[in-house]
Amino acid sequence: MIKRLLCGLLFSMTAIHQACAAEDLTLVLDWYINPDHAPIMVAEQIGAFKQQGLNVRIIPPSDPAIPPRLVAAKQADLAITYQPQLHFFADQGLPLVRVGTLINSPLNTVIALDKNIKSPADLKGKRIGYSVSGIEQATLATMARNQHIQPEEMTLFNVNFQLTSALLAGQVDAVIGGYRNIEVQELKLQGKDPVVFNVEDYGVPAYDELIIVANRDNVSAPKIKKFLAALKQGGDYLHAHPQETWLAFAKAHPELNTALNRQAWQASIPLFATDPAKLDRPRYQAYETFLFDNKLIKKITPVDDYAVELH
Question: What CA–CA distances, in Å, run from 252 to 62, 100, 298?
Fold first, then answer.
């Protein structure tokens, strides 16, 4: 009896010590919680953050432009953002450094419903809907030239983030900016069979869609490596248990338990980085050059100034 009491007391003291020793870390998402964040959610599900001695606070922002700037101002430890945006931050001199990758594949696509559109070359003379100026136009222009047509031979319409509705209503012949794991799945759920062109298949350099950034001054903080280790645990468990993790996510977030999110969860799994800490420097350099060549940034910044590998 005494031995059991001592063991129980020792276990309680250890648990209390671990709880007290847990280090706080604030992560600001790029947007509201959704299947793009699955490895983070799964790491939380399986207790991977706690195993690493972290107390992770996950915050969805009110404005997707805010998260990186909170990190730049040292008001948050980490933020989820996009590799293309990181190049703009570097060009502006913001003290942000990529420390990890969540999704290491572009999500951007060109989507059409007209089966006569069999390649981007068939977009000649067509109306293309878009939402974000600058990058989307450069991306579409590169795809056009890759297919030996001129960008001026397409007509662009800003559809104000109503990509699928504009396409379904016939306001445009195709859209650029729809994600392969979201809008494509949404169209399929509407009974459509979309024609999908992945941007990286037509001359646009591949890039990491979702990345994790830290403030340059805090890159060497041990808790960042611990976070990435836990994130890898979450990703590994997600790949091994796709259905179990979806059910746990749906139970924890019943408002997100929809047919679209269920489809997006499964469609996103192959797109997540299996090693979040790994950095593909040539990929970042190639995309930096792409932006510079399209006059979207003012200068070429060395990759090591805005991206690190924390193994």
Answer: 21, 26, 45
